[in-house]
Amino acid sequence: MATKFVLLRRLSRFAKPSLTHRSRSVLLEPLRPIGFSENKSSSRSLITTSRNFCSGPLSPSDDSQVPAAIDYHSLLQEDEFHRLANSTIHDLQEKLEEYGDIVQIDGFDVDYGNEVLTLKLGALGTYVLNKQTPNRQIWLSSPVSGPSRFDWDQSAQAWVYRRTRANLLKMLESELEQLCGEPINLSSNS
User: Fold this and answer.
1) Could you give the 3-state DSSP secondary structure of residue 84?
2) Which of 15, 97, 141, 166 could form a disulfide with 161 if both were Cys (CB 3.0 to 4.6 A apart)?
3) In this structure, are residues 50 and 58 in contact, taking their beta carbons and an 8 Å threshold?
4) If you average pLDDT over residues 73-92, what whole number do you get?
5) pLDDT tens, position by position, 9-23
6) How far apart are the first and last CA of the chain?
């Protein structure tokens, strides 16, 4: 039995997360007996201990890779979420249809149905944008940046991806210009 614990101790040294690892994973080592104690009834009881290993940011002030905390007190009411999300999606639909008249891309198509906005760019890929009401988020699937979940930021008055702090409209402008070669302005009301 003792050799099993020695082996587990040796293995745990190799399983420790590195200092550069930024996830919040926790590795628990099995309980190890460290001795016996005598209680008042003079029976012997086994004392056990465990060790926890947790890696975190290199410094507490390094927030560059850490998602912003969700302020649940400021979570949008459902009707306000629908108003903001519908407005954003419908504005995007109009501007993307106008953009389709400017760019010459085979397979360019904008479709809105079942509260899902789909932008097909032929061989360049497909964007899918939809509402996620329970989370009060807009989800985006992008051929450039992959999946993202955007929350409404009251102070910025914009949909923002908490992990990177990217603005939905700015990100789409940048990616579409990169893919299609023509600038597009999705942020203004003009």
Assistant:
1) helix
2) 166
3) no
4) 90
5) 665 555 544 444 444
6) 75
